[in-house]
Amino acid sequence: MTDSDTQAHLHLETRAVHAGRADLEALGVHALPIDLSTTNPLTDIDSGGRSYGRLAAGGEIEQNASPVYQRLWNPTTARYEEALAELEGAEASVAFSSGMAAISSVILAAAGDGRRHIVVLRTIYGGTESILSAGTLATEVTFVDRVDEIPAAVTDQTGLVIAETPANPTVELTNLDTLATAAGDVPLMVDNTFATPVLQQPLRHGAQFAVHSATKYIGGHGDVLGGIVACDNDWARRIRHVRSLTGAIAHPLASYLSHRGLATLPLRVHQQQSNAQAVAEALQGMPGIERVMYPGLPDCDPEGLVGTQMAGPGAMMAIDVGTYERAEAVAAAAKIFTHAVSLGGVDSLLQHPASLTHRPAAAEAKPNTGVLRISIGLEHPDDLIADLAQAIAAA
């Protein structure tokens, strides 16, 4: 498929299979090729220098120009970037070696004009919270707990507003339209990892950046590390410039695996979501569980964002079993669920956020010690329900 206007009218499932593959027919190949070259031949000094300067500044590669060096540009990574941008409804996307590299580069790019103040809506991923609260990127941060607190927190030095919905790990939903209005003229970055572009496209609601840890649902099999940012062309240029300086570009093999993952992303997300809905409903009222947090449950979606902002509730949930000791016992007793960090893969995982992913977060931002975060995979839901039931009973 080469006609992007035609693709825009196709269902997302079709676009997920074909996006980023427009040049394959001309190359005479059917499967995605992997170019592992770290350096590329130059026809002459002058053209090589021009290409280097253009790419290092974040520009697009010119036709027939040398990519020069993998840190600047790679065709395998570029195809993946084109595909993700297509699914997010963005002009461009920029791929990174990890989700944190992607988030850090957006922060650095947004602060590039000297506005180094950032407003952050809690709750967010612990790694994001940590790098901001620690001052690692030389930014000044104001954390707020509600969307309506954002306008008062914004100053003339604010370069970025950061939010995550569904939130990690509580899966709390935030109205993106309200959020964009609260941010006003300040660029808004939304972590879209839990929802994926299958269920939510933040740029359609006024965000400037949709960020993913591609390690999660996009890769989907627990075997690739990566991050990616969807945005407009101008921001992509600025972010690529940061990436070229820091060397945080996604490796071609990681880009290949992530791009391949996009083809099955809708199928995986829809089945995992169906499984999660069944599991969440079964856990409600189960002895030993104080609360089930899942957007597919009515009390977890008071604004009715599922079906409007989000196409579905997703496959992430959290349960509160009361105490650290009980959470530890449940994690130890689970048999089908793997006790491990990360999420979004084909197999189901559970972990204790307060001790792991949110361990570096400030005390006021840590989830309750009785909370377990659960990522639902592709196993049969009856088996997952039975496993959690026996683990909770054992605790």
UniProtKB/TrEMBL annotation:
Q: Which GO terms describe its biological process?
A: cysteine biosynthetic process via cystathionine; transsulfuration
What Gene Ontology cellular component terms go with this record?
Answer: cytoplasm
Q: Give the EC number.
A: 4.4.1.2
Report the domain of life of the source organism: Bacteria
Which parts of the sequence carry N6-(pyridoxal phosphate)lysine? K216
Fetch the PROSITE patterns from UniProt.
CYS_MET_METAB_PP
Which cofactors does this gene product need? pyridoxal 5'-phosphate
Keyword annotations: Aminotransferase, Pyridoxal phosphate, Transferase
Q: Which EC class does it fall in?
A: lyase
Q: Which GO terms describe its molecular function?
A: cystathionine gamma-lyase activity; homocysteine desulfhydrase activity; methionine gamma-lyase activity; pyridoxal phosphate binding; transaminase activity
InterPro entries from the xrefs?
Answer: Cys/Met-Metab_PyrdxlP-dep_enz (IPR000277), Cys_met_metab_PP (IPR054542), PyrdxlP-dep_Trfase (IPR015424), PyrdxlP-dep_Trfase_major (IPR015421), PyrdxlP-dep_Trfase_small (IPR015422)
Alphabetized Pfam families for the sequence: Cys_Met_Meta_PP
Belongs to which family? Answer: Belongs to the trans-sulfuration enzymes family.
Q: What is this protein called?
A: homocysteine desulfhydrase
What is the organism field in this record?
Answer: Candidatus Agrococcus pullicola
